[in-house]
Protein 1
Amino acid sequence: MPVAAKSAASEKSTARGPGKDQAGAGAAAISILSREDEIKAYRAMLLIRRFEEKAGQLYGMGLIGGFCHLYIGQEAVVIGMGMAIAEGDQVITAYRDHGHMLASGMDPKGVMAELTGRRSGYSKGKGGSMHMFSTEKNFYGGHGIVGAQVSLGTGIAFANCYRDNGRVCLTYFGDGAANQGQVYESFNMAELWKLPVVYVIENNKYAMGTSVDRSSAQTDFSKRGLSFNIPGERVDGMDVRAVKAAGEKAVAFARAGNGPCILEMMTYRYRGHSMSDPAKYRPKDEVEKVRAEHDPIEMVRTRLIGEKRASEDELKKIDAEVRSIINEAADFASHEPEPDPAELYADVTR
Amino acid sequence: MPIEVLMPALSPTMEKGNLAKWVKNEGDKVKSGDVIAEIETDKATMEVEAVDEGTLGKILVPAGTQDVAVNTPIALILVDGESAKDLSAQPKAKLAPAPKSAPKPQPQPAKAPAPAATIAALPDVAVPEAPSEEVPAGTEMVTMTVREALRDAMAEEMRRDKDVFVIGEEVAEYQGAYKVTQGLLQEFGAKRVVDTPITEHGFAGLGVGAAFAGLKPIVEFMTWNFAMQAIDQIVNSAAKTSYMSGGQVSCSIVFRGPNGPAARVAAQHSQDYSAWFAHIPGLKVIAPYSAADAKGLLKAAIRDPNPVIFLENEILYGKSFPVPKLDDFVLPIGKARIARAGKDVTLVGWSIGMNYALQAAEELAKNGIEAEVIDLRTLRPMDIETVIASVKKTARCVTVSEGWPQSGIGAEIASRIMEEAFDWLDAPIERVTGKDVPMPYAANLEKLALPSVAEVVEAARAVCYR
């Protein structure tokens, strides 16, 4: 689609990317959040944390089945990026998707009810943890095949370009998916046609049980687009301020018709790959260290209190509100009826 | 003795072409590699190069001649020491011409004299078919090839709906690897006729994503063989997302391209994927035979809100059929067509399988067996009701396809008849299929690997016990 190329930057250098005006890879790119934004981020991240803890609990009780991949530890990525996009921008990701759904504004009740396989779930109980969608909230899944969402997200960006609607598609994938072939097929087309897509690589250091060092010849994923002239930036994915700052620049870059860019979010998952993973491939103190020193939620909390931008009481009130929303969602999801048997044959074709 | 220059074939399936122009004139010196003429078909244009050195002695086929059969002598080249007077001498062909395509199948001799164009042996005259109820009486019919019908279907739908676009390898500037998208770039521009890199997995996924976002992509695979690179996106993303999203996300997309054995392209380019895709809930699968069905069903496929697999056939691209001249000719997906009425045996075909079935029906009629020939047209959803109704009348059934036997469409049809019309059967169902081997290259082996009209006739006689 050569005509789609707008005022594309013609320089071959990768230095044209967003954020490269900053010294270093994102380290300096931290914007100070307003009190309102910081509290909003705290609450939103906490909602994901509590939701995931509850999902883990319901899984243990046998109310959630199959695969269940928890997002605990990575909350700052989706919340920071969520603060960087505009109304109408789309989001697509793989199977560790509960956080992305909540960040997109989907109802925790509907998400939890899908996890428990009930008729009020977002997919009427037919998708489960890995396959949920909300066209209303511009959330396009929820995909269980590692890497498939990268081509799909590129296609959503193609549609944006085709319609010239000014929207940007955030296409999330992990360090594991980054080694799939179709990722590079997509990079090539996205840059060739200057598609408005931001590739957000959530590098949580492990593809299931295989560490980045054991799986990847190039472990700096922000450089994975270099041969396609796609600019990339490494971002502290545990710091919601850094994510938001890098996200805003990347989204603006893509929206302006400059084509795709890559944000590598350095993050960490506290839990195993899925509920059935005891995570014996990494030392326990590695997890503890991140938890103690670099927890995305605790960092915001400490800052808010330390800078006296919020009181303990105020934050406790938020904690209670979030807990109540999650308890209500869990209660709803545990008591909703299962899908009607007639649902078995519905929605196969339209 | 002068050397004959023969009409060359641009492709294994070409039988004739036009001599567009002579680049050299009689009396001109030529050396090997010199372009001496240009020939063309509806698909492509090619320069004819001299292989021998000498003088162009005589032009046998003048420029502008249409429908020159492959291997016809088109010029004589005089070699060193020869002069015009040698032109009267009996020319010696440089190569033994390949035998003409056999219109009727016959057992292949153990040692074939030369490579033969086998499966391209389509009759020029369309086998008479039952009149269709889908076309209003008195409608003017125009003759066009399947290739043109497909192009017209896409063009009409693109005019009708700005969300429809074509994407794939060589669909735009090259005008289609098989010229199916000819002229679309010129009419609709590069935004809607999109050349991709060679990246099937990637552009199939991109197409599905665009469909999730509400566009209506027509994704062309240069051949379905290459779609194996993309089958995950077709099956896991396109086919399942409506269901997995509880009906929220639709995927209105057409994947199309030539399917099944072509001619002399061997195992990796000769495979019928009918059964592969017909297996998948969430997909619709169409495999038309005639140009009219190709047009009416492709238009329906583009409008359908579901992912549709549209299996074309390279051998059929150049075959002409009458097509109704209507402003908007759309056929229903999932309806079989009785192509020929009969009472003695039911022959079920689709795509190029119809070619064997209809010719076999002609043969059988000469022996007093009236075959009813059903063109399934759509493989999923399958119109088994039409087949069952026919079998209840004939009590006998033969399925015809080029695909492999195990777990094939023929096996599915046999199974469904067994389930729904067992008591009406007077004989076991026979399947005529491609042989259970990867497609060989050698002409004689290729012919053996494919089904034949003779096999269909034999199977029909067997189930009729005649």
Protein 2
Amino acid sequence: MTHEPGTTATTETWRPRARAVVLWSTLAATALLLTAVALVLSWRADLPDPVASHWGPDGQPDGFASLGGFVGTIVASTAGPCVLFAAIGWFRGQAAATRRIVAGATVWSGAFGAATLLMSLAPQRGLGDAAQAPGVGTALAVSLLAPLVPAAVAAFLVPADPPQAADGQVPADASRLPVADGERVVWLRRIAGGPGVGIGAATTIGMVGVTVALQMWTLLLMPLLLGVLFAAMFAFVVRVDATGLTVRSRLGWPRTHVPAAEIERASVIEVEPMRDFGGWGWRVGRGGRVGVVLRRGEALLVERSGGRSVAVTVDDAAAGAALLNTLAERSR
Amino acid sequence: MIWRIDPGSEEPLYAQLVAQVHVALAHGELKAGDRLPAARDLAESLDLNVHTVLHAYQQLRDAGVIELRRGRGAVVVQAATGDRAPLEAALAAFVAAARDAHLTTETATTLLKEAMKR
């Protein structure tokens, strides 16, 4: 019996928290963007008309637009992702981890839009002709990286889920593992690799190639950051012990912990990464399920209080599930 | 694999870990090339001193079962040796005989240990 999260009254306690995070992060992103819009509009008298709005591979401006047109394009291309993130948080924000990602991504987008406006227009102040606008390699790098700071603050401000004990007993038909009184037991597995590594490596190398071709050396920071991110996303230790389930990247982050007392039931499922989670790595999947997905096939599914659930693709998941059910029962 | 520790047992804690690796090898649950958990992780979960786990790993290394490599941790180098079917059959017979004689597990184990020393 697997129930879809969000179907009963008792699983709805996350909704106010999710709505609050969506609202304040969207407000913060909007405030950042509108402040930048107001600022660049106040520069109108100093800016060439039209302004440079696009730069070619040689670093020379090759596209021009009216100030209003350029601002409108940036606002629209910032709003799009923000709406998507808000929808994810609003409808699938059961887990604090998901709400953190939503808050961080929303604030990053707003700050990126603001930084793009400021960094591309500030150097054009006082120019008679937009064709004289300087290159934007460094401006682009700053616009991409500086927003990481407010994004990290936003993610940090999202509170962790409050403790919420599972209701009722572990179902009788859930598998168990015999454990003697006083015996200490742990199930430990490493998971690593999978198709995501190849995709991550190809993306990183591709970005290095583009950066070298354009000779925008400051942009090398982007593939560097991506490389670290991919390294963190594709090697985990999965641990089941008396404290519950812990999934931790070998770099220490990201990590998640499900206390034994919050586990409704553990079981084994088959995961199809694209269909269920839209890809590989640390994912938010259908119904708000958090996935640590490195490959297709066997996965340990942990259904948690409050309509939350975590799936981890790992071999020998049946042993982990049986031990988790036993430990969850003990914790009651 | 599942690791168990019984703090009430007379068998030293590190020896319990060593025995489980041997059993896992015998059952094919561990194969050559598999990596044992980081000593720190195992110690934390089983509420053991990390030196207890390292002691067990050193014993396994001295027995030629694992290699300890910096950065790679403990790697199994020796798979289950040979055909264990005769041993399993003899063990089943031994257990059956011990039950017929109403021996406790402790007594039967002691008998086996003494026989191994001869």
